[in-house]
Amino acid sequence: MCRGLSTGQMYRQGKAPDMAEVRNRLREIVGASTNWKDHQQALAERASLSQYLAQSQDELPAKTMKDSAIEAHLPLGTQPALREKYLNYHNSVRFGRILEDLDSLAVLICYSHTWNKELKRSPLSIVTALVDKIDMRKNIIYPDCDIKFTGHVTWGGKTSIEAKMHMSQYHDGAYTDVLDATFVMVARDPENKRAAFINPLKLESPEEEAIFQQGELNKTRRVELSTASLLKVAPTAEERTLVHNLFLNTLDTRTVSFRSRILSPNSVWMEDAKMKGNIFNRIFGGFLMRKAYELSWANACAFAGCRPTLVAVDDIVFRKPVEIGSLLLLSSQVCYTEGMHIQVRVHTEVLDPLTRQHSTTNVFHFTFRSLSLQCPSPAGSFQWVRYPNKGRFLIWLKVTARID
């Protein structure tokens, strides 16, 4: 790696970084170290960088989309030794590792947008706010073919940034599309205690204007979905009717009792479609996404009785960091099925062992496709469930969702 050089400088020297170089560059930008003792020292030194923070966005020079454009490679084909890290026992690529790479790349894209070449270290702490969406264009990721990531900033506010990334893989003599991802990052002060200003985005063409406007629409949609939460708004008439119909499907007409329920054929109770895991210490976004995905995949596999294929990743919200010394609890729940598709919700919460307080840190939604045509439907027992395309949550009261 060209140490001390920005990604743009690496490109000018004719070299696009691989994912190892992306992570090395991030360590240089923030002054982090893989050694725990040195890392603690670096964290203490970062506090002094607050003096370089802008007091308003007007103090910062505008940046273009080209300033943050990055291409990075994952040489699974040309570096066989690297495959061991990404290969799973099904002779396929561990998608959780891909999520880690996307998160690292999104952070570097945002640092490229806010980079001040006069400083050795960035005074900003760029953290993942949410993963807006990951669209799978191809379900097969080959373990022995090179992967290419590209991306850049597509929208920017005063303290938040949207970064879009594209992943393709070289196979049969050409690169083919694999996925598109949209991440929203936020800028914080060096100690990650308060928001910090970012460089405004300068648009240079009608195409960039259209990309930016789509970012504005994405922001509006996220705000509308947050205001539609059941924590704030009562269920609609359509939603109440849907839940009531599902309730009637499992009602025992002989007893007409909440304690006596009938499970419809080819169905399982939601209570029996769970899986859990624990993680210790501080977790960064990419690692947490990997662990959540692996847990959701295992749950979908156990539920369907066959290997599921990932279709989409949606609505990943990072609500709070996981502090050192905390215990992170991951709980996965099959919450919806339709035809050959399974939706798994992974809820992560942090437990402070001293105060014994639980706090939600993330909620993940993964949609899988089952190769089995006999995938059972989950029936709930006071569990949260997300209905497709509604952006809202409902509670299932011991009900069954039938396969159409």
From TrEMBL:
It comes from the Eukaryota. Residues 68-191, 260-374 form the HotDog ACOT-type domain. One of its GO terms (molecular function) is fatty acyl-CoA hydrolase activity. GO terms for biological process: acyl-CoA metabolic process. The keyword Glycoprotein does not apply. The keyword Acyltransferase does not apply. Signal peptide: none annotated. GO terms for cellular component: mitochondrion. Keywords: Hydrolase, Repeat, Serine esterase, Transit peptide. Belongs to the acyl coenzyme A hydrolase family. This is Acyl-coenzyme A thioesterase 9, mitochondrial-like. It comes from Sinocyclocheilus grahami.
